[in-house]
Amino acid sequence: MLPPNLKPEQFADYPPEAKKAALANLSTLQRLPLSFLPSLLRELIDYDFKFPAERKALDKELANLNSLSTSQTEDWFRSFAQIRLSPQLENLSWANSPAQFVERLSAHLWATHQLDTFRAAATKYAARLRKVVPPQAPSVPRLGIAVIGQGVHEYPEPIFRKLRPHGTYFSRVNPGNGLNQLLDIVATRAKSHPAAYGHWYIDGGQETDHDPALTCVSYNALAPVRTLLLRKIRTQIERPGMGPEELRSLLAQLRPEDLGFGNPGDAILDWFQMKVLTEGSGTQIFSTTFTQWAAREALRRAQPETLLVHFAPRQRQKPMNEMLSGRSAGEDLDPIGSLVDADMGAYYSWLNQQRLAGAEQSSFLVWFEGHGQAVVIGPSTPRGTESTSAINLRELLLE
Amino acid sequence: MTSCDPRGAARDNRRSVKTAREGSLKLAYDRREFLRAAAGLAAGATLFGSSPFLPAATIPKKKKVVVITFGGGARDQETFALEGQENIPHLMRDLIPQSSFFTQVVNRGILGHYVATASLATGVYETFNNFAATPPESPTIFEYFRKDLKRPASDAWVVAPSNGFNRIGESSHRSYGQGLGASVILPKHLLTAAMSGHSGDVEHLLRDNYETPYYAPELGGTEFELQQLENILKLSVDDFKAHARTLASPDELSVYIARQLMRQLAPSLLWITMHDIDIAHAGTYSLYVDGIRRTDRLCADVWKAIQTEPEYAGNTTLFILPDFGRDSDEDAGGNGFQHHRTGDALSRTTWMLALGAGVREGLVFDRRVDSTDLVPTVGAMMGFSPSLAQGKPVSELL
Question: What is the DSSP string of A278-329?
Answer without folding.
Answer: HHSSSTTT-HHHHHHHHHHHIIIII--SEEEEE--PPBPP--HHHHHHTSST
